[in-house]
């Protein structure tokens, strides 16, 4: 597929097209209640986070890695006193996250419909089975010509995907809620990035305002504002090219 001269619009999935992070935070609170009887420290939440980060290179992102990290935390912080029933509870929390209903964020359906004249793409990271299941259950899959599930979103990943699909950086737009994963790497390689903040963001995906201010990207309040932004910027680029020629 060649998209060298076409504007290609890529979307993050979790917390851009549908809510996701709040299920992890709800599960986390249930696990904290399990652990409080074993570990009285006030840094419990930080302990859980550090365990997740330590395991990212082994388990990757997603509910399975989250559940395994939480089980490990439960064993370590309880000094091995955790019961089989409590471990089963953590497994059920992981299953709950993976089977949670897919409810599209307000404005997503209309936005995708308005942009169907462009080649559309999903770029999401996480567990392959989990992400495939969510995309299928969302009812949106048929709108996207390209779907990529990756283990990380960084400069190298985006450059690899642009090369794979023959997309020039200046013709590529990435839309997402995570500055760290969806926005700054894309801006860094010279493509267009559109940040649409979500009400819940994992601390691992946050960056400081000072760091973000060094990059050029668009920021919108809602996804419904996206079609007008794309239209305006694409038309501006066309006029610019005409004046140069």
Strand content: 5-15%
User: Which whole number gives the mean pLDDT?
Assistant: 90
CATH class of the largest domain: Alpha Beta
Assign the CATH superfamily of the largest domain: HAD superfamily/HAD-like
Give the proportion of residues in helices: 40-55%
Low-confidence runs (pLDDT<50, min 5 residues)? none
Q: Count the helices. How many?
A: 10
The SSE string, one letter per element, is EHHHHHEHEHEHEHEH
Q: Which outline best applies?
A: elongated
Structural class: alpha/beta
Number of strands: 6
**End-to-end span in angstroms?**
27 Å
CATH architecture of the largest domain: 3-Layer(aba) Sandwich
Task: Describe the 3D structure.
This protein is α/β, with parallel strands linked by helices and 245 residues long. The chain folds into two domains: 8-19 and 102-244, Rossmann fold (3-Layer(aba) Sandwich); 21-98, Orthogonal Bundle (DNA polymerase, domain 1), CATH 1.10.150. The protein is built from ten helices and six strands; from the N terminus they run βαααααβαβαβαβαβα. It has a six-stranded parallel sheet with strand order 3-2-1-4-5-6, sandwiched between helices. Strand 4, helix 8 (179-188) and strand 5 form a beta-alpha-beta unit. Helix 1 (21-35) packs parallel to helix 3, helix 1 packs antiparallel against helix 4 (84-98) and helix 3 (63-77) packs antiparallel against helix 4. The longest helix has 19 residues, at 226-244. The model has no long low-confidence stretch (mean pLDDT 90).
